[in-house]
Amino acid sequence: MRRVRKRAQGTDHRVRVVVTRFLLIGALLAAGLKLVQVQLFQAEALAEKALRQRVTIIPIPAARGSIVDRNGVELAFSVEARALAWQPRAQRKAIAEHNAKQDEAVKAGKQGAAKLDYDADTAELAKLMVKVLGSQVDEADLLEKLRSDKGYVYLVNNVEPGKARVIKDSFPALIEEYRALREYPGGELASNVVGVANWRMEDPVQANHNLHGLVGLELLRDNALSGRPGSVTVETKEGGNVVIPGSERNQQPAVDGSDIELTIDADLQYFLQQKSAEYGKRSGAKSVSAVVLDAKTGEVYALANDRTFNASGSGWDPKLMQNPAVTTPYEPGSVNKVVTAMGAIEHGITTPKDVHSVPGSIRVADRTISDAWAHGRLNMTTAGIFGKSSNVGTLMLAEQLGPDRFADLLKRLGIGQRTGVGLPGESPGSLLPQSQWSGSTFGNLPIGQGLSMTVLQMAGIYQTIANGGVRVPPRIVKSVVGPDGERQDEPRPEGVRVVSEKTARTTVDMFRAVAQDGEGMNDGTAPKAALVGHQVSGKTGTAQQFDPEIGRYSNSKYWITFAGIVPADNPRFVVGMVYDQPKYGTPDGVSAAPFFHDVASFLAQHYNIPLSKEPSPVVPLVVP
Question: Which residues belong to any copy of the Penicillin-binding protein transpeptidase domain (predicted)?
Fold first, then answer.
């Protein structure tokens, strides 16, 4: 029995050995098959996957172009900067792996390197950043970001490259990203025209950032200013932060942006902004806007609003980032009487010296319209009708001109149409088609009510007569200069002949009476616009504002306007300004003539405009 039992035990042992061998052989075969599969069939795919994991496409940013004034003064430009970022999860993992290797080394009886402490390292990094960057960062805020559980966090933006390098030399795991910091050295200077540009975060991990315009010309001309970013493909190691030398390929060079040269003169722009703000306060107006045009070319030398924003700041008020000088139309009032004057002279209806018997009021359809001052019948010259801004006399001449010829003049002057100045948000103003005019419409339009325009459009009317009867639509961009230095001048719009050169000259001369200081009834409406040594020509305007709450024109809310030419005998500049709801009745709330005088005086001095050969003649406005 004992022998049988031993024989059985031996048989069981042999069976177990055989089974074990088969299992081992099976395992080896499976491993071999897997190895063959990986090496022969999956090798290429796995290699490609591994490569993708360490391949990074790094964008090469294009330098954004500058915006300069007509003399090359920089209004906006970019400087190189850095953003510093961190990968908290990846760095924690790297430290954990490092410490685990040291533990294994110790267990194997080897001497391991010192262990790392994430909290201690991040504390050291935060202190170094505060030391180098100062008030640009806050230590507590940095520690909160560094010790978060996020994959990628930005620690600080707009760091000087040299300072960023100092920090990264001590902490190679820190991530540097290229930035271009947009600088506006003038702060508020021309900010409503230039606008602002800022970063748009498109893919933080890939550092695919672009500086783009938000408002103004920065937005409208963004494509030209931005250029075209490039890229380069690289292989990385250590969590994707370190580029493997010599791995660069597929490089697409960046194309820098173009510079934009404006027609604006920075010195004049600064002066006009300061004066707009000053007269805004003096008049108590809700807003003030002004413009200066070249009389011949229509180029915008300055375009200002009394309230603006500092483009170098942040947290801008959207309301202050608008540009009312081109976006906000108004009813012009008596400055629009120049249209009737041009038409009446062009069609031989009158001459400046003709005398008209002007009553105190006139009936137009179902409306009775009076002058701003009460009077009986007066003998007024044509120059007097406009020099004293008679509504009644203007409507008498407009009636002889007729609606058809008047409407044609408005069309040729571009009223109700955008000027195409080259600024965003431009309003066309408003003008009813002639087919929709009622009987009383022609009692409103010649005296500047029932239609609206921007201060830029208003100045354009006077540019027409200053330029010999040819309207040249205004422009604010002079040229575009490519990164290669090649200059492309902006296309100049063709002029529109509105009236003859003789009519334009006669109208300019006649409107000198507005600024004359005569005796008795021979005062013009704006003697404070006069400039010693230089002839000036222009027109005042006061327009009631329509009040929707009462459903009619208000007796307390007005637009005050002025449009003028300097010098009148050889026109160089056209100036226009408008006050919205000034404190009517106060010295600076009833006329913009003093504002015009200050601007005309600056223009004469700044551009060394020669003195007029003779002063403006004092002409009869009201005769016995």
Answer: 289-599
